[in-house]
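tool=predict chain=A
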Amino acid sequence: MSLQQLAGTRVLVTGAGGLIGSRLTAQLRRIGARPVSVCKIDAYPRQVYHDHFGISLDDPDFHVGDIVERGVVDKLIEGCDYVIHAAALADVAACTRRSVDAITTNVIGTQRVLEAAAATPSVRRVVFVSSASVYGNQDARAGELAEFAEDAPLQPVSIYGSTKACGEFQTATVLREVGTSYAIVRYFSVYGEPQVVKENSHSWVVAWFCMRAALGLPLHLNGGGRQVRDLVHVDDIATGTLHALVAPAAHNQTINLGTGIGTTIREVAELVRRYYPDAAVIETPRPPGDPLGGYACIRRMAELLGWQPEITVTEGVARYAAWLKETPSAVPAWLRQPAAA
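tool=predict ok
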């Protein structure tokens, strides 16, 4: 399925200021589409958005706004052909600390987007960005890793995962009623340059490990690093999302976006230590809500989208380490403080 059919279309992207959203809008522009972006841009200092994510507040198609506020999405969605709803409080630890904020943004905000899309006749399809967090901890045979298939029961173990599961049900309920096509994409562990870590977060392990190693800080293996993640480079995530936007077979489907390969956190640490061989590794407790994990079943993705990711985790870690060495200013000031050790 060629993405060139998006050329000339208008695509509303919520959460467009972050790592994934900025990658989506950049790809859309290269294709010849016109992305209409909205984001609160409150997750990082504004300089991060400009310097690393390439966001310009002078862009007339970039709008600083909160999707929860009535009327914000309704104005931007007029004349749009597609919608990618990626806006969310997406950090597991932050959602645990700020559960009401998580519900407000991830549930009420999602409802605002869906209602606006349902009321806009020009919208051909909505892609709702969900997460592998909806699976929680699935059973696996002894000695085997858990493989998550789309028809597995939803058993989230975090506030974040719960809000994403709710968003999936919201999407199907609101859009099926009016006959608007949708696709739900469940992202596995997204990483890649220029990802920047957030304070008091335990997500984004590649960025965390590389930045700590660059500062000579130890790499923390929460729970011994036995958790398994299906690490998907952000470039592949953006491409897969756009395929879900246009593939006819993705109509009203739920699709994993992963590599089908499980990598333990300890293995990530070893990959990072190839570039920072002096980095120490210490074991620390596993945080609440941090799932044991597994990897994506990608049969449905390959069948419905006719596409698979291309960037291996080995290549992706190498790319991130190289980018960080070229861009040392990306390491946040708070991580440089002595207390970070």
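The mean pLDDT is 93. The radius of gyration is 19 Å.
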